[in-house]
Design brief:
The structure holds 2 protein chains of 2 kinds. Chain A is mostly helical. Chain A contains 13 helices and 4 strands. In chain B, the strands form 2 sheets. Chain B has a 6-stranded mixed sheet with strand order 6-7-8-3-9-10, with helices on both faces. Classes of the chains: A mainly alpha, B alpha/beta. The interface between A and B is medium-sized, with 24 and 35 residues.
Chain lengths: 309, 266
């Protein structure tokens, strides 16, 4: 029974890790390239989840690919609209606007009961299929999540190394210098926000399909902040960092749940611990956990620098 | 308007002005720069030199007046379009892409407009590969020219200040700028490095690039500039060879008097 319990937990952890990883990469595009700290990715993620809930419940489609594409379209569209907002307001003001959008979107969804099911949420969602094959075993879900995660990772790495990615990195470093190179910032920002929204929403589809439930409460501000924590703890602008961050959070959450505390206390303790983790990591490793990989490289380089005339 | 030498002006400003609130940072500036010339913009701090650069590169829109490049009215042209037309600039605070290598910094300026769409990257791999090769050749050529080949793979933020300034000029070269606006290319450099930059500027002019520079180091202005424009309180107060301009007692009073008074404050 304990063994059974553990396998169950591990599959949850694996799913959470893979899906958080995809959303973290999506968020990292916006934070790392557009240098806009988004607090609204939980809402984009949630939009994907409810896209699946609505499409599957009404019998429109329970195919992960079809629902994923529809969600990506929706998420991408909303994110592009937010990109235009980010051009007019930047820095702290964008964070506030993004936070407001997150709160507004989840509240609106909560009150739109025919879509979200209100406080109860949408539950008992049909099991999904992929190209006609039923996705019912834990292994099948994890495979689907792994395919999404690996595709996302490969895409992120390809993007970073491509000439397009070079422009995105340049935009993060100095938008005005990029203008003098002959590139308008609007197009690039819209592109980054669009890709980011598409990925976050697509991940939401898989999340709802796996849980069989979609509740607005899952996608509230605390998830939004958790996602930011994953990116910052892992390291902004780094796909490997997002993986490290997602892994840490995915394992920390169930460990904390095993402390035999009441549900409300657990939530509070969790937030405290994540906050402490965030502050701790940022204080020790300002560039996130990815910096750990640099430590070895840093030491000899300093030595070499000292011998320079 | 054809100047005395008969060469057509590459850049003209007509009564160009820019106000910030009630403060007129640039106030009715009319200047003309010939193709292949090296012109220095001099004047005390706050004279409007950098603002004028911002107006010419269109990072700031003018409040009034006209800007002509190659005889074409570009007063309302976007900065990215002007960059593609051949106006390159550097910044006083350099503004390299600090987290990227020197190579990548230059490559950004060698990339075509088309590379800014994800679609072209995904759908036409052959065109992408062709452009990648062209960019690679251009970057290597430019780094060689600027004497930066050895530091090509160094992160720009870790380069020496002098090398960073050279990368900034190399970037303008990569975009095939015909007019380069260099904002204090020699400030913060030691004598040897200044000499390096001066040589680079002269080499560029020899290759047909028109150069306008803002510079406080009068040594380098005398050495490279054929003409100097003296700016004070947003207006042109003198225009001549650097030597004659600097020997004018009236202008020396504005310039050095100003410096002396600020030094006194400090």
């Amino acid at each position: 029974m304990i063994v059974f319990g553990l396998t169950l937990v591990y599959s949850d952890i694996a799913m959470q890790l893979l899906i958080y990883f995809v959303v973290a990469i999506a968020l990292n595009f916006v934070i790392g390239y557009a240098r806009a700290l988004s607090i609204h990715h939980a809402a984009l993620f949630g939009m994907g989840a409810f896209t699946y809930a609505v499409m599957a419940q009404r019998g429109w489609s329970n195919d992960l690919i079809v629902c994923g594409l529809v969600a990506a379209l929706l998420g991408g569209l909303v994110s592009v609209i937010l990109a235009f907002g980010s051009l007019r307001i930047s820095g702290d003001y964008f964070i506030v606007a993004s936070f407001a959008f997150q709160a507004f979107a989840i509240n609106a969804l909560f009150n739109w009961t025919s879509v979200s099911g209100g406080a109860n949420g949408d539950y008992g969602l049909p099991t999904p299929t992929v190209l006609g094959l039923a996705v019912s075993s834990t292994f099948a879900y994890i495979t689907a999540a792994a395919v999404l995660a690996i595709t996302t990772l490969v895409f992120a790495i390809w993007l970073r190394r491509s000439p397009y990615g070079r422009l995105l990195r340049a935009m993060g470093d100095s938008p005005s210098a990029l203008l003098t190179a002959g590139f308008g910032v609007l197009r690039l920002k819209v592109g980054v926000f669009g890709i980011s929204g598409m990925l976050a929403a697509a991940a939401g589809v898989l999340y709802a399909a796996y849980l069989g439930v979609a509740q607005t409460g899952t996608f509230d501000v605390s998830l939004a902040i958790l996602l930011v924590a994953i990116v910052v703890i892992g390291g902004t602008g780094s796909a490997v960092g997002s993986l490290l961050g997602a892994t840490l959070i995915a394992f920390a959450q169930p460990l904390l749940s095993n402390l035999n505390l009441s549900a409300t206390t657990t939530a509070a303790v969790q937030q405290l611990i994540f906050a402490a983790l965030l502050v701790g990591v940022v204080a020790v490793l300002p560039r996130g956990l990815v910096q750990l990989g640099d430590v070895r490289k840093l030491v000899p380089r300093r030595g070499a620098g000292a011998t320079e005339p | 308007m054809i100047s005395a030498s008969g060469r057509p002006p590459i850049l003209q400003t007509v009564e160009l002005s820019r106000s910030f609130g009630g403060f007129r940072a640039v106030d009715g500036v009319t200047v003309s720069v010939e193709q292949g010339d090296i012109v220095a913009l001099i004047g005390p701090n706050g004279a409007g030199k950098t603002t004028l650069f911002n107006l010419i590169s269109r990072l700031l829109p003018p409040t009034s007046g006209q800007l002509l490049f190659d005889g074409q009215d570009v007063t309302h042209t976007s900065p990215q379009r002007l960059a593609r037309m051949g106006i390159g600039r550097t910044f006083q605070d350099v503004r390299l892409f600090d987290s990227m290598t020197a190579w990548d910094n230059v490559a950004v300026f060698a990339q075509s407009d088309r590379s800014a769409t994800l679609r072209s990257g995904l759908l036409s791999p052959r065109a992408v590969r062709r452009e990648a090769r062209q960019v690679r050749e251009r970057v290597e050529e430019v780094l060689e020219y600027a004497g930066l080949s050895a530091v090509a793979s160094t992160i720009a933020g870790e380069l020496s200040f002098a090398q960073q300034k050279k990368v900034a000029i190399a970037r303008c070269l990569a975009q095939r700028a015909r007019l380069m606006l260099l904002d204090e290319p020699a400030s913060g450099l030691d004598a040897g490095e200044r000499e390096d930059v001066a040589k680079m500027i002269e080499k560029l002019a020899g290759d047909g690039v028109t150069i306008v520079l803002v510079e406080h180091n009068m040594g380098i202005v005398r050495e490279v500039a054929r003409r100097a424009i003296f700016l004070a309180e947003g207006t042109v107060v003198g225009e001549d060879t650097p030597d004659r301009l600097l020997h004018s007692s009236e202008l020396a009073e504005i310039y050095f008097g100003h410096i002396r008074s600020t030094a006194g404050v400090a």
